[in-house]
Amino acid sequence: MDALTVLAVAGVTLGLLLYTSTFCLVPLQSKFLQKYQELNGFLPPFNRAPLGLPGRGLIGWRILTNPLHETIMPEQLLCASGEVWGVTFVLAWTLTAIFNPGTIANNPIKDRIGYNNVCVGFDTAPANFICLPLITLSTVFGFAAAFTDIQRAVLERSTDGPSARSLFKFRLTICVDIILMASMLCLPLLLLIDPTVSPLGHLLVFIQNLISRLLSFVVPFIRENAQRDQITRPRWLFLMAFAGISMILPVCWLIDFILYDPKQISHPINPIFLCIFDWSWVIFATVYSGWVPQFEAISIQFRLIQLNESGDQENADTKGIAFITHAASAAI
């Protein structure tokens, strides 16, 4: 494994470990977090208390262990998708380094762009089929985030009135969420398209996910009901960095692919420059949902109902309702 790849993997892994450790070690309501909010106007991305989930740990774990929680936020689900992606990345590269170090030293992607792209770690067995369930879980969380955001947009539309701005905001949200859902459904193809057979097809799967994540991050900043006090300078800086990397990378990759000559390998774009941007994107994609401005949450009520023969709803018996209510309260 070349030195550049070692440094990139080590740096990203360390960043993800630090990100994960904050969930496990930092109390959600500590004095430090309160002071941070006073100084910066918003809570740091590792504190997701405003999302309504109790306890500590990664958001994805808290979602799965609190199935009857009565507050749903799309940002919370998107955060879980990014976390699973980060965990999958570390696992994939660990497995590839152990079982297929030759792939890291020599592969079609590296021949074209001059370094090991993030997706190289997912390209060979056993990493690809072991990580497929995790990629699928990330897809489920991402799809659910987009779908619940559509639900929230419909609710907002019903209360905002028929203004032109309201209609534009609604249509913009729906379009971006549909793009994100389609992108998430295509994400597992990253592990199924063999780069030795179709390097460009393999790369395009990665690019489409990169673009959809960028859109899902940018749109909340231009929606009219975003709270101005939430769009602080750190959030704007994060937006500019994430957007810049997400737009530069696809262009540079495509240039390298188009100009690739197997007889005389050359790289029009500096591989070190691309590698830094590429691996920085992994960290951005893992934590970016924590920097999205917060919107309204969706409140739901769990209860059992019974349907009669005509399909009409009938209230469930009292015991059933009491049990579900108690379970939801216990989860909170």
UniProtKB/TrEMBL annotation:
Keywords tagged on the record: Membrane, Transmembrane, Transmembrane helix
Membrane-spanning intervals of the chain: 6-28, 84-105, 125-147, 168-193, 199-222, 234-259, 271-291
Protein name as it appears in the record: Uncharacterized protein
Organism of provenance: Prymnesium parvum (Toxic golden alga)
